[in-house]
Amino acid sequence: MFKEMRRKEKQMNDQAVLRILRDGEYGVLGTAGEDGCPYTTPLNYVFEDNCIYLHCALEGRKIENINFNNKVSFCVVGRAKVLPAKFSTAYESAIAFGEASFVEGEDKKEILMKFIEKYSSGYKLEGLVAIEKAFSKVKIVKISVESITGKENRES
User: Fold this and answer.
1) Which N-terminal residues, if any, form the signal peptide (predicted)?
2) What is the pLDDT of residues 80-96, one digit of tens each?
3) Which of 77, 74, 72 has its CA nearest to residue 25?
4) 93 CB contacts (<8 Å, ≥6 apart)?
């Protein structure tokens, strides 16, 4: 189902790809809906146990798209530097493909706490209060990763 990378010399090893997913600040979720139109959304995320977790509103286009077609992609750019004199860019990126589902109950609370740990680790108590306040207004999307590729251009 997944094509091999055309430019194999740019392919990253598995450890480097997992590092990008683990350490990235944000990624871009790709979905497709009933109209067949691709839709992408930049989001904060947590990567754990070969799953990517996203938090979002209870409804909206991305939720509609996932309900229609739960096959998604998620792209994270680890670093990028434009090289004007070379008409190129030095970069590293990872793209994950998988199936999206929704997390509920205590698992949802656990994942929200992982967001606090990643993005606001100095504010855990305040984070718990924020989780309680927003719990019923937040949806957690879980992407069970089926395939990950990583690509880089090391030029400098």
Assistant:
1) none
2) 999 999 999 898 999 99
3) 77
4) 20, 75, 76, 77, 78, 150, 151, 152
Buried b (16+ CB within 10 A) or exposed e, 81-98: eeeeeeeeeebbbbbbbb
| Contact between residue 149 and residue 92 where contact means Cβ atoms under 8 Å apart | no
In the DSSP assignment, the letter for residue 55 is E
**Do 144 and 96 form a contact (C-beta atoms < 8 A)?**
no
How remote is the C-alpha of 55 from its chain's centroid? 10
Check whether 116 has a pLDDT greater than 80.
yes
What is the 8-class DSSP label of residue 94?
E
d(CA 17, CA 107): 26
The pTM assigned to this predicted structure is 0.91
Domains contained in the chain, CATH given:
8-103+140-153 (2.30.110.10)
| Beta strands at 71-83 and 27-32: parallel, antiparallel or unpaired | antiparallel
Which residue bears the tokens 């207004």? Answer: 137
